[in-house]
């Protein structure tokens, strides 16, 4: 019998034997499904991506991970929601290891002196079903500036694997890196940085 056929048959059999939870649906985009409560950042599926123009040739991207923090949320009173998130600067990663090291160095983010980025919301406004503007203070490179994120609910519900109430959002904002003192090679390397956020939270209470 053909070895590739046997391998395929083994894979199908293995998948069929997985717990039913793996086949269950996860989150739903319906805002009515969001549970009120206090949530903690789920770091394994939370990323902050960044994109900037590199010498007028390419829009180059990287990301930060290993976030921590909390979200206090009541869908009926979205204006009372609170978001507090911290990112370790040393988690910065691109597709180039040499560049990763440079970004952590004193000419760029200076991770040894400024080890974290921190965002605390000050005002949240609903912009429609599952949409909100999240304004707050971003501290980066030792400088604090106001930033507003446009947020969109991606899904909420019970995670079929760990059985925890989970909610996930997408967020976007544009900042000036030189406003935070990260001005290396401006304007040759773009000053405007677009942030793309994938954020997951698990309900604690």
Residue windows where pLDDT falls under 50 for at least 5 positions: 1-18
Q: In percent, how helical is the residue content?
A: 10-25%
> What is the straight-line distance between the termini?
55 Å
Please report the number of helical segments: 2
**How many strand elements?**
10
- Rg for CA atoms: 20 Å
Gross morphology is globular
Q: What number is the mean pLDDT?
A: 91
Structural class: mainly beta
Concise overview:
This protein has 205 residues and is mainly beta. The protein is 11% helix and 47% strand.
Structure overview:
- The chain has 205 residues and is mostly beta strands.
- It is 11% helix and 47% strand.
- It has two helices and ten strands.
- The longest helix is centred in the first third of the chain and has 14 residues.
- The termini are far apart.
Q: Layout of SSEs?
A:
Layout: H1 3-16, E1 37-41, E2 47-54, E3 58-64, E4 68-73, E5 82-88, H2 97-104, E6 116-128, E7 131-140, E8 143-158, E9 165-176, E10 192-203
Antiparallel strand pairs: 1-4, 1-10, 2-3, 2-10, 4-5, 5-6, 6-7, 7-8, 8-9, 9-10
Which terms summarize this structure?
10 strands; 11% helix; 2 helices; mainly beta; disordered N terminus; Lipid/polyisoprenoid-bd_YceI; eight-stranded antiparallel β-barrel; 205 residues; signal; globular
